[in-house]
Write a structure and sequence with these properties.
alpha+beta; AmpC-like; six-stranded antiparallel sheet; single chain; CubicO group peptidase, beta-lactamase class C family; 9 helices; three-stranded antiparallel sheet; Beta-lactam/transpept-like; 15 strands; Beta-lactam-related
């Protein structure tokens, strides 16, 4: 009586392998790690390619990857943790905490969380190259972009924006009295037993760190260096498949936030004109195979990431790659599609 389920699982695993091998074609080059979990338990987990090309070390599912913009999930939940502690409201204007911010009385924390602030995205500024490898304080980062002309009035439209999340990291520091990295460590990583997750560092010795690569013409090169104080709360965390599963499980089990606060992260919001847009707080809200999903990717020199959660079937799919030549975005979504079609409710 168990054969159909076992056969279905084997078929799913084989199809996932085939999907991945179409994208990661060079097993001697950098690659990626992928996981499918349902109801909090791992159903599929494999590594492809090399963690270090120079040493010929294979990737393993336990390896630590830079997350890029998947960091935004942790920043958004940190803001909601502070709201739960009555230390802020997402409706607060940023001028309440940064009095000299230009037009800060019109920009709310909600605008920052939903990419509707209109603030100039610092990653699109030509002068970014001048600071990319410098040690920047959060205030220095905010000062770097705050006087730039805004792209639109707050709430007028949705436009993905890294500056907003840098500002949120700065607000977390101002309101909590803790450095952002310490806040994430104490209130999230330590609480959830995420012992292989970090605020990124090139100097710290990190066990099982995957090295990052880029592809130039037909050759791999070591990733371009960046000081992690620059992406800061918009993209500077590192983690593993197992720790990200702990994170996702904690969110749906309300281990960090109550239901009302959690729902804020996964609800769509409206622009000033009443138009609904598909972004919550730190997650894109999409539809796959007719089911609503919460998803977010990330990209930082040498690394790309993607996580997809399907509430209706309690499926979580993650892809982490150590070359920005191997994008897991569409691949992870396609794995999620396969999982939705194959995984029967138990």
């Amino acid at each position: 009586m168990f054969w159909p389920v076992a056969t279905n699982a084997q078929k799913l695993n084989g199809q996932i392998d085939s999907l991945i091998k179409r994208v990661i074609t060079d097993q001697q080059g950098p690659g990626g790690v992928f996981m499918v979990a349902q109801k909090g338990k791992v159903l599929y987990q494999k590594a492809f390619g090399k963690a270090n090309i120079e040493l010929g070390v294979d990737l393993a599912p336990e390896d630590v990857f830079q997350l890029g913009s998947m960091t935004k999930q942790f920043t958004a939940i940190s803001v909601l943790l502070l709201e739960q502690q009555s230390k802020l409201k997402v409706s607060d204007s940023i001028s309440k905490y940064i009095p000299d911010y230009p037009a800060g009385n019109k920009i709310t924390i909600h605008h920052l969380l939903t990419h509707t602030s209109g603030i100039k995205d610092f990653t699109k500024m030509k002068s970014l190259a001048g600071i990319a490898q410098r040690e920047m304080t959060p205030k220095m980062m905010v000062d770097f972009f705050k006087d730039e002309p805004v792209d639109f009035a707050p709430g007028e439209r949705f436009e993905y924006n890294n500056s907003g999340y840098v500002l949120l990291g700065y607000l977390i520091e101002l309101i909590s009295g803790e450095q952002y990295a310490d806040f994430i460590q104490h209130h999230i990583f330590d609480q959830l037993g995420m012992s292989h997750s970090y605020y990124a560092s090139d100097r710290q010795i990190i066990k099982n760190r995957a090295y990052g690569y880029q592809k130039k013409e037909n050759a791999y090169v070591n990733k371009t260096a960046i000081n992690f104080s620059v992406p800061f709360a918009s993209g500077s965390l590192m983690s593993t498949l197992a720790d990200l599963l702990k994170w996702q499980n904690a969110l749906i089990q309300n281990k960090l936030l109550n239901t009302a606060e959690t729902n804020k992260a996964f609800s769509p919001y409206k622009l000033n004109n009443g138009t609904l847009f598909n972004y919550g707080y730190g997650w894109h809200l999409k539809v796959l195979e007719g089911l609503p999903v919460a998803a977010h990717g990330g990209s930082i020199f040498g690394f790309k990431s993607m996580g997809v959660y399907v509430p209706g079937k309690d499926i979580y799919v993650v892809g982490l790659t150590n070359c920005d030549c191997n994008s897991p975005t569409l691949l992870t979504e396609n794995i999620a599609r396969l999982a939705i079609m194959h995984l029967i409710k138990k």
